[in-house]
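Exam revision sheet. Question 4 asks you to relate a sequence to its structure. Input first:
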Amino acid sequence: MRVEDALFIRKSTRAFLKDPVDMSIITNILEQAKLSPSGDNHQPWQVAVLTGKAKDNLCSKLEEAFRSGKEPAMDYEYYPQNKKSEKETKWFSSYKENRKACGLALYSQLGITREMKKEKDDLYAKNYRGFDAPVILIFFIDKDLGKGSYVDYGIFLQSIMLLTVEKGLASCPQGSLGEYADIVRQELPEYKDKIVLCGMSIGYEDDANVINKYRTGRQDINNIVKYYD
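Answer key, C-alpha cells:
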C-alpha cells in the first residue's frame, strides 16, 4: 500500500465491529511505529493496550464521569488560551470555522439538531467507550519532557494510524480519553506519575454504520502554504 493511499483511506472511525483483533497485529503495529523519529532519538512514547475487562472498566468509569456532569480536566493545555477544557476555550479565526463545519457535518449525517441535547450527549458519551472498539490504546508521557516531545509523539501516533490502515484495521485518535486523567491513572496505577496524553480506538470498521460515512474536509492548499523562491 502506498502512503498516499493510506492517508486518503484513514479517517476517525466511530463505529466498530465486535470482531476481536489478534494481539499479535497490535504488537506488530507498535513495533513498526516505534521506528518513528524523535529528537536525539529519546523516544517519549509509553503505551497501555487495553482489551476485555480492563478496557470495559476504564470506559465505564469515564462515561459515568461525563454523564454525572464532572468537568473534564486534561493534564496539559491542549486548547488555546492555555485551557484544559474545551468548554472554556474561545476559538478564533479559521480554527473556529473549521471546528464548526466539522461538528455540523457530523450532526447532520446523524440527523441531530442543536436542540437534541440527549442525542448529542449520547453521541459524545461514545467517545469515552472508545466507540466500543475491541482495543484501546492509552498514551502517556513523562511530566518533565518539553513541547518538542509532544511534536515527536504526534509522529508516533500518525505512524500507528497509517499502519492500522495497512493491516485492514480502522482507528480513531481521541483526546477525550485523556479528559479525565485522574480516572485513567487510578485504573492504570503503573502510570501514576505520568501525563495522560490521549487515547486511540482500534478495530475493524463497521462499514454499514452511517456514522462512518462522515468525512471531514481540508483547507485549500493555498490557505496553508506559501512558496518562496
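Marking note for examiners. Residues 3-216 form a domain with the NADH Oxidase fold (CATH 3.40.109.10).
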